[in-house]
């Protein structure tokens, strides 16, 4: 089977491309490299000895998409391409709606024209807003995301729902990721954020490697066990495996399917920090700061639907996520540049 992976040079896309190649799929990557470099795909090739065909271009470029579908017998699309920085989305809403919503619309139009109806979409637990109960199940109502990034994910989910209702040939997976972290255990494929990281684990690992001075902990007065925010961190390799299982499943059914991809366990900022210190053997200096606007106190998944319907379960522990993050970061202190 031949799979088009949009955003395949990015963090989650590159790990999923590796998993696809290892499983025997042919892969065409479409990426404009606005938040990545093709070094990730070279790393993929070095790890598995197989390579994806890399096409540098934009998912909003309809003529390019038409050409790709004409030249390749694509069976399904994994759609990772998009912008993902929450703070930046507040400052640049048009760019975010254009890339994330506009990109998805153009992709779906090109897919329909080419007769390709299988799509796996990268959504986010952010679409749940602030649920009253934990763990979060797929049947919970979606909330009101507090930023354009989150809105863009919810809008695309709704578009895909309407599309499946209107045209029964579509077979779509909405994968709601919780907090993807970690790196491939080779230590040569990992997360390489542009500039100062927004997310917890890349920030901690850059403090440990000496690129940043100290971690700011955003609030220690939440009603959680130690007062710091709780999240469901999931190893990116487990997440990649979830995509393969979702792909398999939508190849056998049509309609819209929603699956949470998380572990079902919540860990606090403090627990993550301590686990990282243990894995790296380095102290991570920190300072407690006020809460970050838009943060929820806690969020973790009920992953039982994916276990039941996909036969998928995350298997890697928090300690392994930290060990793999540190192996990647210490091998590549400046990411793919060094
Ligand atoms: P990433 O930035 O590493 O990867 C996205 C890739 O898409 C990059 O390689 C980028 O160059 C490419 N891209 C962006 N706009 C494009 C365009 N218009 N045309 C072609 N390529 C384009 O991000 P990631 O962490 O790998 O996330 C992948 C997807 O998963 C995104 O849609 C993101 O919103 C979603 N997601 C990520 C997280 C997370 O914590 N990382 C959580 C939930 C959902
Ligand atoms: C954030 C986004 C979410 C997005 C996800 C993945 C917000 C409000 N949410 O999720 O939409 O899908 O990233 O890109 O931005 N923390 C610190 N110090 C830091 C960074 C984070 O204490 O320097 C804390 C946060 O307060 C939170 C936890 O660490 O409690 C995890 O934060 P982060 O990694 O940014 O993920 P989310 O906020 O869950």
Briefly summarize what is shown.
It is an enzyme of class 5 (isomerase). This protein has helices at 11-22, 39-48, 62-71, 86-91, 93-114, 148-166, 200-208, 236-250, 269-280, 304-310, 318-331; strands at residues 2-6, 26-31, 53-56, 76-79, 118-124, 171-177, 179-181, 215-218, 230-231, 233-235, 255-261, 267-268, 286-289, 298-299.
How large is the radius of gyration? Answer: 19 Å
As residue ranges, the low-confidence spans are none
**Hetero compounds:** nicotinamide-adenine-dinucleotide, uridine-diphosphate-N-acetylglucosamine
Q: How far is it from the N-terminal to the C-terminal residue, by CA?
A: 35 Å
Structural class computed from helices and strand pairing: alpha/beta
Give the H and E element order: EHEHEHEHHEHEEHEEEHEEHEEHH
* Biggest sheet descriptor: 7 strands, parallel
* Helical percentage: 40-55%
């Amino acid at each position: 089977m031949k799979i088009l992976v949009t955003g395949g040079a990015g963090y989650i896309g590159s790990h999923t491309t590796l998993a696809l190649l290892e499983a025997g799929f042919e892969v065409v990557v479409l990426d404009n490299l606005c938040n990545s470099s093709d070094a990730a795909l070279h790393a993929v090739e070095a790890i598995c000895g197989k390579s994806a065909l890399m096409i540098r271009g934009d998912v909003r470029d309809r003529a390019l998409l038409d050409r790709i579908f004409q030249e390749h017998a694509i069976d399904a699309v994994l759609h990772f391409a998009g912008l993902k920085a929450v703070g930046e989305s507040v400052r640049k809403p048009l760019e975010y709606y254009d890339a994330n919503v506009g990109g998805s619309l153009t992709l779906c139009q090109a897919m329909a024209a080419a007769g390709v109806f299988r799509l796996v979409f990268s959504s986010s637990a952010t679409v749940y807003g602030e649920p009253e109960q934990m763990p979060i199940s797929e049947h919970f109502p979606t909330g009101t995301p507090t930023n354009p990034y989150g809105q863009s994910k919810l809008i695309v989910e709704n578009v895909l729902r309407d599309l499946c209702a209107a045209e029964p040939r579509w077979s779509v997976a909405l994968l709601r990721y919780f907090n993807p972290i970690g790196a491939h255990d080779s230590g040569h494929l990992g997360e390489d954020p542009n500039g100062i990281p927004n997310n917890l684990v890349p920030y901690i690992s850059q403090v440990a490697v000496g690129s940043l001075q100290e971690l700011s902990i955003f609030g220690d007065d939440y009603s959680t066990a130690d007062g710091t925010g709780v999240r469901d961190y999931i190893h990116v390799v487990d997440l990649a495996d979830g995509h393969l299982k979702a792909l398999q499943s939508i190849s056998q059914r049509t309609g819209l399917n929603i699956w949470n991809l998380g572990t079902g366990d919540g860990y606090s900022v403090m627990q993550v920090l301590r686990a990282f210190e243990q894995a790296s053997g380095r102290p991570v200096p920190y300072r407690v700061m006020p809460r970050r606007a838009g943060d929820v106190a806690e969020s973790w998944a009920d992953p039982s639907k994916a276990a039941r319907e996909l036969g998928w379960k995350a298997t890697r522990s928090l300690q392994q996520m930290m060990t793999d993050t540190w192996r990647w970061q210490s091998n590549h202190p400046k990411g793919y540049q060094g």
